[in-house]
Amino acid sequence: MSETLERVLVTGGAGFIGSNLVRHLLEHTDAHVVVVDKLTYAGNLASLDDVAGDPRFRFVRADIADRAALAVIFAEHRPTAVANLAAESHVDRSIEGPRAFVHSNLVGAFEVLEAARQYWDEADPQRRGAFRLLQVSTDEVFGSLPETGSFRETTPYDPRSPYSASKAGADHLARAWHTTFGLPVLLTNCSNNYGPFQYPEKLIPLMIRNAIEGKPLPIYGDGQYVRDWLFVDDHCSALLQVLARGRPGESYNVGGDCELPTLEVIDRLCAILERELPAAKNSALAARGVRRYADLKTFVEDRPGHDRRYAMDFSKLRGELGWTPAHDFDAGLAETVRWYLAHEDWCTAVEANRYDRERLGLLGRKPESSAGQAADPKCGSADAAEGPAERDRS
Prior knowledge:
The chain is α/β, with parallel strands linked by helices and 394 residues long. 39% of the residues lie in helices and 14% in strands. The protein has helices spanning 16-28, 67-77, 91-96, 99-121, 125-130, 162-181, 203-212, 232-245, 262-276, 283-287, 315-321, 329-342, 344-351, and strands spanning 7-11, 32-37, 57-61, 81-84, 132-138, 185-190, 192-194, 217-220, 226-231, 251-254, 259-261, 297-300.
């Protein structure tokens, strides 16, 4: 095992991508994993129930923007690597309330970098040589693409939302801390993740949940917004490769090689649901007189500043580290649908008293209809994963 992966600190590890990365590390390496998470609305210990008893797993509730808490965590757990996935990641929420995004995504990233720098500066030569810090980011920092072309690592930044602007700022800090201080930083920018444990405000789990309950499937604008879809376990395997073998100071794009418009994603999802839970046998649909899941599709007001298309060129990651996505989109989507059908208890637990699938990000305007929360295609990137919190909060 790479010395870098001896003890990995995962911030935001109770969120979507973070919890999947924790499982991936425990399953595919001998690493000890320490999760730091604030447990905001989208970070939940229920997402880590299956690893809670693993002797190589530890959890600390803390805010990454709390330097004192970070200092204690670094001193106590002495990580050989840090994967910073702590972030507020829902674009609509960033339009509604940007402050939390600046706090977690930008200030939090700064404090992680500074805590890591102090820890690294004081480490012995062997630990200094093995240490890596991975800043996990998003394709949204690059802005919007025309009908052709792909984002490369050299694409100029052009963020269009408070969310993407806060992530872009964190990326710039990470690069600066490598160039100025020599901190061995790595950076990844990923496309739209999907898969198990994704908070139901995001497109795919939202559509699954609404469809099962016979509720409208709200679609922004004309539904032709194109995203590159990446199965979360493929993303985690890429992060593992970058942490273990990536070159400090370099950034790597991570993509799913699967560009699809929102409408096609929803149509494919409805077709899978028809196989897994036929509409004719779903009492929620029968009660509303709906014969097909596809009949639930509902067009709603578009999001302000909605980027039209994203596409990722991950040839650098493939060429340098030999990584390619292993999951076909339809197979990954079917696996995701089956997971949500089998984990109603998890969905109920994470939504309870936190989220009613309401529409956000309309700049003070009320939604045109009662279709519920409109579909945000972004992951959670990435997002990245949802962010951490203060140690003294209950």
